[in-house]
Amino acid sequence: MPVAVIIGGSAGIGQAAAMDLARRGFGVIVTYRRHPEGAADVVTAVEEWGLRAAALPLDLADASAFPAFADRVREVLSEVWDAGAFEVLVHNAGVGGAEMLGEITQERYELLHRVLLKGPVFLTQALVPMLADGGSVIYTTSTSTNAAGISPGYAVYGAMKGGLVVLTRYFAKELAPRGIRVNSVSPGPTRTRFGDDAYERFPEVVAPLAERSVFGRLGEPDDVGAVIAFLAGRESRWITGQDIDASGGYDL
Ligand SMILES: NC(=O)c1ccc[n+]([C@@H]2O[C@H](COP(=O)([O-])OP(=O)(O)OC[C@H]3O[C@@H](n4cnc5c(N)ncnc54)[C@H](OP(=O)(O)O)[C@@H]3O)[C@@H](O)[C@H]2O)c1
Band of the pLDDT at 79, cuts 50, 70, 90? Predict the structure, then answer.
């Protein structure tokens, strides 16, 4: 059974991607940070379908823990799947929220950098030796990287995600000799707990954001999870180095 590792699989888009991948026959390893129950829900659901799944803790802000995390992934692959490699890495975890230039602190900048840019670089470095040749890496970026997707307050967040779009292209080139594809998925506003439940805490932002999609609604986690799962599978075998918009025509 092919296995997918979903970084940030305990909620929102990552949880939806994990469920979609499992429906397509992947075993899944999901990571969580503050919400182990969200990861446990994935494991329970996937096991009910007769497939295997596991959940592991990970804090992307702490790169010094990545080698030990890679060791845990190696152990779980061996114990649960009797395997030494996995086929798909979904690097989805992220934090964010609107902070104008006058508000952002150096501490907040450092956190965004560690989670959104440094984490993807060094976690990919730690895990890629275990990724099977012919595998697929998918990062989650954001429409905040596009001129049309700009909303005030997302300068640093958007810059980090823009960096991830660039990393995607370089890593696609570097990993191509092993047949590994590297792509990213760029969601627009999607109804998740993102930003410490920002859409719940500030319901007044929902309608104006929904109007910016040609379909007049926010994305749902599985709208984006399905695109991630597509990029994991054979149907997308000729796509690499691309940032795929999954925003319902945001600001089109
Ligand atoms: N929702 C949107 O409107 C939107 C739009 C564009 C892009 N995105 C991007 O989509 C991705 C998924 O976000 P989401 O909307 O699904 O948000 P979410 O519901 O808040 O889920 C975020 C996921 O990331 C994990 N995570 C957060 N901080 C982490 C850390 N320091 N270390 C490890 N894991 C961490 C969370 O784990 P725990 O819950 O267990 O802590 C959770 O699994 C992010 O990269 C985000 O930037 C979201």
Answer: very high
Indicate the length of the chain as a whole number: 252
Q: Which amino acid is at 221?
A: P
How many A from CA of 91 to the centre of ligand 1? 10
> Is domain 3-246 in CATH 3.90.650.10, yes or no?
no
Please compute the mean of the pLDDT values over residues 103-126 and round it to a whole number.
97
- Ligand 1 center to 193 CA (angstroms): 8
Angle (nearest 5°) at CA 218 between 142 and 246: 40
Q: Which residues line ligand 1 (CB under 6 A)?
A: 8-14, 32-35, 38, 58-61, 92-96, 115, 140, 142, 187, 189-190, 192-194
Cα dihedral 162/164/170/171 (nearest 10): -170
